[in-house]
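Example 9 (inverse folding). The structure is encoded as follows.
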């Protein structure tokens, strides 16, 4: 292990070193958590031990159909996220490519992205009902407007020389968008998609606590009523695990797709 690289400004380390450090950090976090609970610094009623949380998660999976709630939440998140991507990528590119689109759309996007999503939940239920539509709408609202601006910034960072070269070679605007701008911004776009997918997961609780009878958020909210702290933390832990695995998968794919970076 190259210890000097660990403390050097923007030093590079091997994937093996990164994995070892990540495991050490997780073990340290679990040890601190266990010590706080076992020593009574915080009552186990409010902060159960990791073992109690794992047992609660196993019980939820074995006896309460929690695996079905997980699949439902994953479907909702990915449905809303993909809808956001399909809409935000072209709109973001157009915002950076055509001044009239940016002038008209960006103020609206900026305004809506600052609105508190929880405050909009009653309105979304009135518009979309208590079915899947309102839940997808909450997740979409929390993702689309942020992603559109990130995509626009990615497109703006594409060197103007690339675009001028395309025009010199006779490319049309659509060809420049598809073959120059989109390809040049792809590495940063994938990174931003990874980040906004995490944001989408943060809204799942809000989406599933109102007029819902399924999903991880509903399970957490139901256990909260009966002060079942281990079960509540087990639900939160589930979201963290799913997010971590997804994030690491996208990181691996990013390294394979863009080896030249």
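The amino acid assigned to each position is listed next.
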């Amino acid at each position: 292990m190259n210890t000097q690289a660990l403390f050097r400004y923007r030093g590079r380390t091997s994937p093996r070193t990164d994995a070892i450090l990540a495991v050490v950090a997780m073990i340290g976090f679990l040890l601190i958590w266990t010590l706080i609970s076992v020593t009574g610094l915080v009552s186990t009623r409010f902060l159960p031990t990791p073992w109690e949380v794992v047992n609660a998660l196993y019980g939820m999976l074995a006896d309460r159909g929690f695996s079905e709630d997980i699949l439902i939440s994953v479907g909702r998140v990915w449905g809303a996220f993909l809808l956001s991507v399909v809409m935000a990528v072209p709109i973001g590119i157009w915002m950076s490519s055509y001044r009239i689109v940016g002038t008209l759309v960006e103020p609206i996007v900026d305004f809506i992205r600052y609105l508190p999503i929880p405050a909009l939940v009653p309105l979304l239920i009135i518009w979309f009902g208590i079915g899947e539509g309102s839940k997808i709408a909450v997740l979409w609202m929390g993702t689309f407007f942020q992603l559109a601006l990130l995509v626009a910034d990615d497109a703006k960072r594409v060197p103007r020389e690339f675009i001028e070269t395309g025009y010199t070679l006779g490319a049309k605007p659509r060809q420049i968008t598809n073959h120059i701008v989109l390809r040049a911004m792809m590495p940063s776009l994938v990174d931003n998609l990874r980040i906004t997918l995490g944001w989408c997961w943060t809204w799942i609780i809000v989406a599933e606590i109102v007029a819902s009878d399924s999903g991880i958020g509903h399970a957490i909210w139901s256990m909260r009523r009966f002060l079942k702290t281990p079960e509540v933390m087990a639900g939160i832990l589930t979201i963290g695990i799913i997010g971590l695995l997804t994030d690491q998968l996208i990181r691996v794919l990013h390294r394979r797709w863009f080896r030249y970076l």
